[in-house]
Write a structure and sequence with these properties.
The structure holds 2 protein chains of 2 kinds. Helix content of chain A is 36%, strand content 21%. Chain A is built from 6 helices and 8 strands. By secondary structure, chain B is mainly α. Chain B has one domain. Chain B is built from 11 helices and 2 strands; from the N terminus they run ααααααααββααα. The chains are: A alpha+beta, B mainly alpha.
């Protein structure tokens, strides 16, 4: 057949595309379970990290079983809903109106018997999504630990939200003021060590990421306001 | 029939050794720079990127070389792209399944292997006119040359930018106590360009043949 004829080109292209599509879909379906497992393990690692427990890929399942005692879904009024909290896609929930959002809550019990509530966070950074988890002490006000993650923030600047150094700054801060009003956490650009219990030093050079993080905390925790107040000790 | 050339004849080996030095894709041909900037902040992603590019380049070179007599020249670029793109997807899926952490770090850059000029460049310039074995060697050689540069650059960037090598702390704690600080600029893309620039400078000052005549 003439290599330059249109027919040859069309047949050639069609066969090529069909072969490639078949190969790719086979590979994709075979690897899918392993990939999903990875994503699940990472989420569990993140949840554990928010209560200051470091895990690796091998011991995460065991540690997760040991410390995370319960998980459930609530709505903005703090009422329990049925469903599996772990598989809720919070990013999709955030697109709905506040009344319809399904909000996951994780409960952990530490070695010393104290209970911590863990709340997932999702938001926007400078270049892409940021997310994380935040855990509270018994009073459901003082932050016990946080973990943040990002997809593509600037390395060395915005990406520093993943460093322990930055995340430690949140520990001990409070999201409700003395009159029980929700004030969230403000990220302040200040070199001087701020002693304000509702403020945290932002990342210098990472202003937009910091602002995004601040907004994420505000947006996500506010939905839990009622639940946190009602269940505090 | 003419004598068959041994698999690793001198000429064939040159396909591997030339790209390492005097025909290096990055410092001499100056292609594939974009990804060299992005993945060289640490050594580990640079090494993984090297292997990914090696896999894609060697295999796509071989496939295109096998197909070279059947590919209609009017759609040859499209055919090349399809082959490269599907190999890249294979690499990406594989990384996500077995090197999850690394795949997160490389994120979009694996996908961008498709647009890595080295790959299309070698397909056009070499694989379309040479036999599969030679094309394979050429692919390995060029990706090694690419990887060599990536690793050199990432070595310096990680050492001075984070004080670590392959994730291990090498600059002792006491240095920091005396006021030594990691250079944040090393982690940012501009320093990759400058480092590559310095390497090109050194290479050309050693090897005067590489300097273009005016």
């Amino acid at each position: 057949m003439n290599k330059h004829s249109n027919l040859y080109i069309i047949i050639y292209a069609s066969i090529l595309v069909i072969v490639v599509a078949a190969v790719l879909s086979i590979i994709s379906t075979t690897l899918k379970p392993v990939q999903n497992k990875n994503i699940e393990l990472e989420k569990k690692q993140n949840i554990l990290h928010s209560i200051n427990i470091n895990s690796n890929r091998k011991d995460v399942e065991q540690l997760y079983g040991k410390y995370i005692k319960a998980s459930y879904i609530i709505n903005y009024k703090g009422e329990r809903l049925s469903g599996d909290a772990f598989n809720i896609d919070l990013r999709k929930e955030k697109l709905k109106s506040v009344e319809e959002q399904k909000l996951p809550v994780y409960e952990s019990r530490l070695d010393n018997g104290s209970k911590k509530i863990i709340i997932p966070l999702v938001g926007k950074g400078l270049w892409g999504p940021i997310w994380g988890f935040i855990s509270f002490n018994d009073d459901n006000n003082t932050i016990y630990g946080v973990t943040f993650n990002h997809e593509g923030e600037t390395p060395g600047l915005g990406a520093q939200i993943t460093t322990t150094d930055f995340q430690k700054r949140f520990i001990g801060k409070q999201v409700f003021d003395v009159r029980k009003k929700f004030v969230s956490i403000e990220l302040k650009k200040a070199k001087s060590k701020s002693n304000n219990i509702h403020q945290v030093d932002a990342i210098s050079g990472g202003t937009i990421t910091s602002k995004g993080l601040e907004k994420m905390l505000q947006n996500c925790i506010s939905c839990y306001e009622k639940y946190l107040k009602e269940n505090s000790k | 029939m003419k004598n068959k050339e041994p698999l690793f004849s001198k000429n064939n080996l040159k396909l591997i050794t030339n790209p390492l030095s005097k025909d290096n894709p990055i410092t001499v041909q100056v292609i594939g720079i974009c990804s060299a900037l992005a993945v060289t902040a640490q050594i580990k992603p640079a090494v993984i990127m090297t292997f990914s590019v090696m896999f894609v380049l060697a295999l796509s070179n071989v496939i295109i070389s096998f197909l070279r007599k059947t590919i209609p020249s009017r759609i040859r670029i499209i055919v090349q792209l399809i082959v490269v793109a599907s190999l890249v997807i294979v690499v990406n899926e594989f990384l996500k399944a077995y090197f999850f952490d690394v795949s997160k770090q490389l994120s979009v850059f694996v996908g961008l292997i498709i647009t890595n000029c080295i790959i299309m460049g070698r397909l056009e310039a070499f694989a379309l006119t040479n036999k599969p074995w030679l094309a394979f060697l050429d692919g390995i050689g060029n990706s090694l040359g690419y990887g060599l540069l990536l690793i050199i650059v990432s070595f310096f960037r990680e050492l001075f930018g984070s004080g670590t090598i392959w994730g291990f702390q090498v600059i002792p704690e006491c240095f920091y106590n005396f006021g030594y600080e990691n250079n944040g600029l090393m982690i940012l893309p501009p320093m990759a360009l400058i480092t590559i620039g310095v390497i090109i400078w050194i290479q050309r000052s050693k090897n005067k043949n590489l300097i273009e005549e005016k």
